[in-house]
Amino acid sequence: MQIGGWSTDTGTRRCRALRTDAARNRIRILAAAQEVLVEQGWDAPLDEIARRAGVGNATLYRHFPLREALLTEAVEQIVANVADAAEEAAAEEDDPYVALHRFLQTAAHERLAALCCLSEEKAGAHPELAQQKRRMVDAAQLMLHRAQQAGRVRQDVSLEEIIMAIAQLGRPLPGTSWTATDQFGPRLLQLYLDGLLLLPFEVAPPGDESILFAPSEFGRPAG
C-alpha cells in the first residue's frame, strides 16, 4: 500500500527492525550490567556497562533513565531465572542431591553473585525482586532439607553458606577477566559440590587421626 509515495509495508518493516534493535540493545545492556555488578558491586560505573554492551551512553539512558532501575532489573532477571531453575529441579529430580546440584550449577551460570550486591533493605524495597528471591530461597531450602534428610548432604551446612560459596566461585578474582572464571569455574564448583556430600565412611574429629578410613571398606583403621 502506498501513501504519498511511502510504502506502509516498508515503514512497518523498518519499525519492526527498530523494535528488534532496541530489544537486542536492552538484552545486551542487562547482560553487561550483570557482569559489572558481580565485579564491582552496586557502584558499578554506567560508562563501563555501556562500553561492554557495545552501545552509547545515550542508548543506555534511553532504556534506563534511572541507575537503580537498571541495576535492580539486572539482579531481578538473574533471581527470577534461578528461582525457576530451583522449582524445576525440586519438582523433576528424584534424588535430592541431584536436584540441589542442578540448581547450584544454574545459579553459578546465571551470575547469582550479583544478588550479594544488594542489601536486604534495598532488595526489600522492590516487591517483585523480593518475591523472586523468596521463591528461590524456599525451593532451595526444600532441596537442601530433603538432601540432608536423605543422608546425601552433610548436616552442618546451611543454605546461606552454600549461596555465599556459589557467589564467590562465580566472580572473577581482582585483576582477572571472566575468561579464567568461565574456564575454571565449573571444575571448582564441582569440587565444592563434592564436598557437600555426606561421606560414606567415618571421618576423624579434628585432632584425632586414629580413624582415617572406614573398616568396612579397608578392613581396619589406619595407624
TrEMBL record:
Zinc-finger in keyword set: no
Signal peptide: none
Protein name from the UniProt record: TetR/AcrR family transcriptional regulator
PANTHER family from the UniProt entry: HTH-TYPE TRANSCRIPTIONAL REGULATOR BETI, HTH-TYPE TRANSCRIPTIONAL REGULATOR RUTR
Alphabetized Gene3D superfamilies for the sequence: Tetracycline Repressor, domain 2 (1.10.357.10)
Domain called HTH tetR-type: residue spans: 23-82
Provenance organism: Streptomyces apricus
Keyword DNA-binding: yes
GO molecular function: DNA-binding transcription factor activity; transcription cis-regulatory region binding
